[in-house]
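Q: Hi! First time asking for a complex rather than a single chain. Here are the components, and I think there are two in total. Is that enough to go on?
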Amino acid sequence: MNLALKNINLPLADFALSVDLTITAQVTALCGPSGSGKTSLLDLIAGLRRPESAYVQLGDRVLCDTKRGIDIPVRERRIGYVPQDLALFPHLSVRRNLLYGQRSRDAAADNLFSYEHVTGVLDIHALADRGVAKLSGGEKQRVALGRALLSSPGLLLLDEPLASLDSALKSRIIPYLTRVRDEFHVPMIVVTHSVEEVQPLCSQTLQMERGQIVRC
Amino acid sequence: MASEDWQIIWFTAWVSALSTLCILPFGLGTAWLLARRDWPGKSIIETLVSLPLVLPPVATGLILLKLLGRRGAVGGFLHDYFDFDIVFTWRAVLIALGVMSFPLLVRSARVAFEEVNPRLEEIARTLGAGELRVLFTITLPLAIRGIVGGMLLAFARALGEFGATIMVAGNIPGKTSTVSLAIFQSVQLGKDSHALRLLGISVALAFIAVWTSELLLRRKKNLR
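A: Yes, that's all I need. Here is the structure of the assembled complex.
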């Protein structure tokens, strides 16, 4: 992965998000205390927050350059986002949640991964006809991950993927994340409170405090 | 019950339903803008939308009469250029009912839109959905019960409308007479039993509309 974040300035409630770095690792852990701006940074990369100034480039695509007035719309950024609350669509079945992103793409050839492949790797094939309200915490996590993958992203943003899970479930989810990394080779940024939990998965760790990266 | 009574009940029911359908796109658009967007003058629009709830209905009717009458800005234009009249026709009843029930639809739909987690819409966009697809596949389905509840409330309000209607449409038997107007006229003429029969029908229609609306809202709460 090559994600360049330059000249980022996004005012938050108590401080400004101010970042200047390039991420090249396949999987990067972004850790830091609550309220340090981790989720805001993910939102900014996904295009959900409008910064005062920013230059965001993923691979050879410039997603945002405020100096040149470039701001690729959220729907065209191809960034898979799994938020902390997962945001599964409660009125849709698991299958329709999973296919939501795939159907959004104009051409079938744009779909990088097949439904069968993703549901097989994440072991969620049998859940397809269930409502999302009837899923366990771990199942919801895998469905949200599968939905993001099926949108054929160039980058996956995972916001606290283990936060709402008990220790037993955490140990079951990590292997799935590892399989996603190894099978699909989609770069990931994983926000976490505990670096130790995602250490086996990540090749780079960033520490964030009050809107700034203080340690790489 | 006499055939003219059935005609009044039928006219009231269909013109109320039609007015609810006519205000639906404007009501949903206004509610969505109030719930999801900030713009200059938003509080003025919020106040204007709610005015028919607090103004005396006859005052709203008078405003409509001044606007839609042959000497009014809108009515005069339509009469002069298209030979088209609104006041004292069924179209005036339709407009009066729509204006009076509009705030109820907007308020219910606005709450329904506000209760949809904006994060779901944002994530839909990250999955490649455009604004229309987000609206039709996420926002509207999740807000549908509140919207239908608002439509039923608006319909019930329209069924019982009196003040604005009599100002702008009068009470012309077979043409603009609604259940409320017919009850008023019957009482004035001392036909109390006739008024009571119409009252019974009116209560039944309003009860069914409000009760259905409450059921929908309760089901919505239980689903959360």
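A: Chain A has one domain: 3-215. Let me know if you'd like any chain examined more closely.
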